[in-house]
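Lab notebook, page 48
Experiment: co-folding of the full assembly
Goal: obtain a model of how the components sit together before planning crosslinking
Operator: M.T.
Materials (sequences as entered):
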Amino acid sequence: MEWEVVIGLETHTQLRTKSKQFSGASITYGAEPNTQADEVSIALPGVLPVLNKQAVECAIKFGLAINADIPARSVFSRKNYFYPDLPKGYQISQFELPVVGKGAVTIQVPASGKNAAYEKVINITRAHLEEDAGKSVHGALEGMSGIDLNRAGTPLLEIVTEPDMRSASEAVAYAKKLHELVQWIDICDGNMQEGSFRCDVNVSVRPKGTDKFGTRREIKNLNSFKFMTQAIEYETRWQIETLEDGGTIQQATVLFNPDTGETKAMRSKEEANDYRYFPDPDLLPLEVTAADKARVKATMPELPDAMKARFEADYALSSYDAAALTASRELADYFTATVHAGSDAKPAANWIMGAISAKLNTEEKMINESPISAAQLAQLLKRIADNTISNNAAKQVFEAMWAGEGEVDAIIAEKGLKQESDSGAIEAIIDEVLKANPAMVEEFKAGKEKAFNALVGQAMKASKGKANPAQVNEVLKKKLAN
Amino acid sequence: MALNITDIKRIAHLARLEISDQEATATLTKLSGILGLIEQMQAVDTTNITPMSHSQDVTQRLREDVVTAINQREAFQSNAPFLGNGSAEKAVDSGLYLVPKVIE
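Observation: model returned without errors.
Model output:
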């Protein structure tokens, strides 16, 4: 039987604020335990939560960025459960009425094997504001666990999709797109190591062609795209094998173990799924007016999809190139700056996605750490365009600039890379070559095309590689025709 | 909706309340009375009424995103529970609050 995997994601993004969701405690990462746990974070009796304005604006930004409904009113609810890292005994979240309603994002799924790349729309069910829990630290003292409440109360936006994805690559393409988007609109720093962006993935399988969803298992807290791929592929195989062996799938929460590459069900917490949500009487309904939305919209940058369309239209770039260049705001800014500094768009795109990306990957650097500035790259590309240097020489200049050896023109002069474009000089070189290689000339005249290339090679060699190859071709053709 | 003793025990467990059989029976009577009251209210036609989530018809005031809290760990932890078994020691260690071991 052929199987189909059905995937939905819930992503917790930590919002870029200075203080907590409901109090003025700092959320700086890595502080000493409990030094950022104020009376609200540790749930002392009598404290009142007061909602962070910045967190609300982040949620509005996200809603606008995915073209979602942003209702005039949303409501905070208590999600009740007991765990030592949750001192109130409930998490403040949103349930029936979230701050962001239905929206959508378009993902680019890369080509793999025989399958070509394609675009797909992933529907977002909702996004809601909530607070993070604290952290349990094990092994500090025999028989005890340590609780650090610094993270308790950190502002989160949980983004939930419809079960729209049908493969691990679609799920990862969505997660990457969302990761880019939240950083692009500057609501999340995207730091996956520090847990600022973590995904829960719901996976189920069903016979291909059927409508009914299978029973799902939820893979918790994936914090790398590589693990996400591995976890989904393992989980999918496991579910299919279980069903084919005549077993059934029990709804469960599972954890991925990066060391074994396997997913494993957590010990089921008794009655864990009965959260008894009810509206939090400590918080009034959150109102978002049209004016609020307009005010936030005015602060937002051009969105990646709009910029991609503009790159395709204005610079005649392919959809693939435009998508790659708008993968991050920094990369898009670098490209735009290169073009504004006088380079043609297509070579700028090629060099940024080729030579520069390759170097950045090797050295594990981000584009804003590139030793070659956009202005320097533009200058290099101008020197190719005006025939000062050949493409080959440009690669040498590029390496030298990357190593910090100076500016384009100085390096060209120093290394003697200037291309010979003086037609008189080129004609003289070719005359020499023709005189020195009469046999090749005869071969060419006898119809051997290969001899022409050999002559071009001789001329380039005689010029020490500095002659403009296009010009050599042209002059040689003319001379041989005589 | 009629409640039974099992429901009462389950609700008590979810709220981490220890409840004896006798208390459960008494609670069943009281809670059923409250539900009976709610049932009467359900009879009111609320078709065109927007549900309220708060008793006051006002909206949430927002706080500017500024760090105002200072580190009061020492003061808070001086009020932490004792380690247990008559220990005079506070259940804190290296800045952490201590709880009986949590198995993940």
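Interpretation: Chain B touches chain A at residues 10, 13-14, 16, 53-56, 58-69, 71-73, 76-77, 91, 93-104 (CB under 8 Å).
Next step: discuss with group before ordering constructs.
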